[in-house]
Amino acid sequence: MSGRRTVEAHDADSGEIGGTLIGAAAAMPRPAPQGTRFRAATTADAAFFAALYASTRAEELALSGWPDTLQEAFLAQQAMAQQAHYVQHYNDAEWWVLEQDGQPVGRLILARWPGQHRIVDIALVPQARGDGLGSAILAGVIAEAEAVGKAVSIHVEKANPAMRLYRRLGFATVEDKGVYDLMMRLAAGTATVDAADGRVAIS
Questions:
Q1: Could you write out the DSSP letters of every residue in 61-115?
Q2: Residue ranges of the N-acetyltransferase domain (predicted)?
Q3: pLDDT of residue 61
Q4: Which domains does the chain have, with CATH numbers?
Q5: Hey, how many other C-beta atoms are within 10 angstroms of the C-beta on 98?
């Protein structure tokens, strides 16, 4: 089926969410930051993904004053909506779980397109944030893309504090998407940006 890939034997078994293969393995993101490993995601990771999403929004939602039960229900619904969006719009993306000491601590959803690597999502659990792990993952994706002359792109919320990190790593805004900016880091001397849709053409 279009957009599906098989998982190699040394990776975790493949699973399906919403009818689309997740955790495909054309090539595992390498290298994983020291002390961690990537593995292909499976349907067994659904609860972790929901909790991970909630951890990225819980502080923001706490300001709503809603009862805890309503907040939890809303976050669960939003996590499912996010996943459905990714499956619909990035059905060729690879879903990876980052593990540390055998426990899941993050997620990377990566689409390897002809002219660029699109980071669909990158997220870490609270206890794994702030110690350079996210920067190391980004550096690995950038290095892989640069090695084959590709750009790296990602949608970032304008109010996201990580915006500073992306700019420090050489990303620039190429399109204003309202709440989000489409940011891109070009491989020097190898790519140009189509301002109309943010796609990259190799020169």
A1: HHTT---HHHHHHHHHHHHHHHHHHHHHH-TT-EEEEEEETTEEEEEEEEEE-SS
A2: 36-189
A3: 84
A4: 15-202 (3.40.630.30)
A5: 25
pLDDT digits (tens, 9 = 90+) for 25-84: 445 666 667 789 999 999 999 999 999 999 999 888 888 889 999 999 999 999 999 999
Residue with tokens 């640069």: 146
pTM of this structure: 0.79
What angle is formed at CA 29 by the lines to CA 26 and CA 31, rounded to 5 degrees?
A: 140
Buried b (16+ CB within 10 A) or exposed e, 37-66: ebbbbbeebbebbbebbbbbeeeebeeeee
Of 18-22, 43-47, 194-198, the range with the lowest mean pLDDT is 18-22
What is the pLDDT of the chain when averaged over all its residues? 82
User: For 118-142, how does the pLDDT look when each residue is reduced to its tens digit (9 = 90+)?
Assistant: 999 999 999 999 889 999 999 999 9
